[in-house]
Amino acid sequence: MRAVIVDDERTSRTRLTEVLQVYQGEIDLLGEADSLEAGVELIETTQPNLVFLDVEMPPYTGFDLLDYFPQPDFSIIFTTAYTKYAIEAIRASAVDYLLKPISLPELKLAILRAEQSRGQSELISLLKHNLQKPAEEHKIALASADEYIFIDKINILYLEAARQYTSVYTTEGEHVVSKPLRHFTPLLQEPYFFRSHRSYIVNLKHVKKWVRHGGGYIEMRNGDQVKLSPSLKKEFILHCKRYG
Fold first, then answer.
1. Could you tell me the pLDDT band of residue 72, with boundaries at 50, 70 and 90?
2. Given this model, what pLDDT does residue 143 score?
3. What is the pLDDT of residues 45-57, one digit of tens each?
4. Counting Cβ atoms within 10 Å, is residue 88 exposed (0-12), middle (13-18) or buried (19+)?
5. What integer best gives the mean pLDDT of the chain?
6. Any bridge partners for residue 76, and if so which?
7. Which DSSP symbol is given to 190?
8. Sequential DSSP letters for 37-77
9. Alpha-carbon distance 140 to 151, whole Å?
10. Contact 217, 197 (CB under 8 A)
11. Residue 101, preceding peptide bond in cis (omega within 30° of 0)
12. Class of residue 171 by CB neighbours under 10 A (exposed 0-12, middle 13-18, buried 19+)
């Protein structure tokens, strides 16, 4: 497994590197980064399977790094001295959350979870490659407490993550579903759906404009404003020209 460490504290990086020595031959430590910017560059350059990610890296947090990787193909193990970020780490689909100083037993369990997660992801990818999606699958089923609501995908405006729930905004109104946003990613493979932010998926057919001031955001045809990660601006414009 190929791994990197992103942590602004040198002592923490050194301690984790020393503990990882027990995995010599099994884990290839590709490098370290001491800031969010350096971490993004390191991940893009090395393409790791596993990222050990610190939470507090002023003026940013480890969660900000995920804006640059809305659909990461690597597992994340958060490392921090604080317990208060555990819930947000779960929302970010981390495989584990380790408190500093990191002990060997906890590290072993976290790496085992990362390996299991990686194996499941590879199996899902293989199944997707081998199974053909039916051409007539134009609807999506949204489950509520006592019913299923079938929505034409083309009528979906955008989806917004809300903890372990997802708000699905359509031309007919809003539906709140007790599923995380990642549940819908494989169901919305049409080219006109775009992951604009780790908390949003937009339907390019219903995008009205991209507003650059105020940090930048997407305005939908119903007037709602949707976040766009800075790293995805060029890709978003390209997709709008092709499929919008």
1. confident
2. 79
3. 999 989 999 998 8
4. middle
5. 84
6. 51
7. S
8. HHHHHHHHHH--SEEEEESEETTEEHHHHGGG-SS-SSEEE
9. 5
10. no
11. yes
12. middle
pLDDT over 80 (residue 6): yes
- CA–CA separation, 35 vs 37, rounded Å? 6
Q: For residue 58, what are its two tokens?
A: 């002023």
Q: Cis (ω within 30 of 0) for the bond into 48?
A: no
CA separation for the pair 175, 50 (Å, rounded) = 35
Bridge partners (DSSP) of residue 69 are none
> pLDDT tier at 90 (50, 70, 90 boundaries)?
low
- Say which amino acid occupies 131: L
How many C-beta atoms lie closer than 10 Å to residue 4's C-beta? 23
What does the alpha-carbon distance between residue 188 and residue 192 come to, in Å, rounded to a whole number?
9
On the question of pLDDT at 219 being above 80, the answer is: yes
**Quick one: three-class SS letters along 97-163?**
EEECCCCHHHHHHHHHHHHHHHHHHHHHHHHHHHCCCCCCCCEEEEECCCCEEEEEHHHEEEEEEEC
| Residue 154, pLDDT score | 93
**For 147-191, how does the pLDDT look when each residue is reduced to its tens digit (9 = 90+)?**
788 999 999 999 999 878 999 999 999 999 988 898 898 888 888
Res 135: pLDDT = 41
Average pLDDT over residues 95-123: 77
Tokens of 166: 């997802």
Q: Which amino acid is at 143?
A: A
Distances, alpha carbon 125 to alpha carbons 75, 181, 226, in Å? 15, 18, 29
